[in-house]
Amino acid sequence: MYLNQFQAGTVAFTTVVTAEITLLADQEAELTIRQDLFLDSVTLIENLGGGWDTTLLPTQKELEKDISLLPQLPPNGAGLRLEPPAPSSNH
To answer: pTM for the full model?
Structure first.
C-alpha cells in the first residue's frame, strides 16, 4: 500500500521502509510462534508417553500447501504415535 503511495508521490520513502520493517518483524514473530507451537506439540505427545516418528511427517510441499498458525496432523494421524502406559507392578 505504502509503495503505491510512494510511487504516486504522496508519502516519503522512509514511510515505505518503516512499513516493510514492521511487516518483516511481524512475519518473524509469526514464525517464532509457529515454531513454539510445533515444539510444544511434540513435547506434549512425548510427555503423554508417545513418540514422534519423523518418517510419517508431511513433506515440505504438503506443509506449504496449507499454512496455519496451529500445528495440524494429516487426517490419518501420521506422525503421532501414542503408546499405552506400561503396566504397573504396584498392585
So the answer is: 0.50
Rounded CA separation 74/70 (Å): 13
Alpha-carbon distances of 17 from 2, 23, 28, 86, 89, rounded to whole Å: 9, 10, 16, 58, 65
Computed on alpha carbons and rounded to an integer, the radius of gyration of the chain in Å comes to 22
User: Which tens digits make up the pLDDT trace of 47-83?
Assistant: 888 876 777 777 778 777 766 655 555 565 555 555 5
All residues at 6 or more sequence positions from 59 whose CB lies less than 8 Å from its CB, including other chains: none
Q: How far apart are CA 30 and CA 35, in angstroms?
A: 9
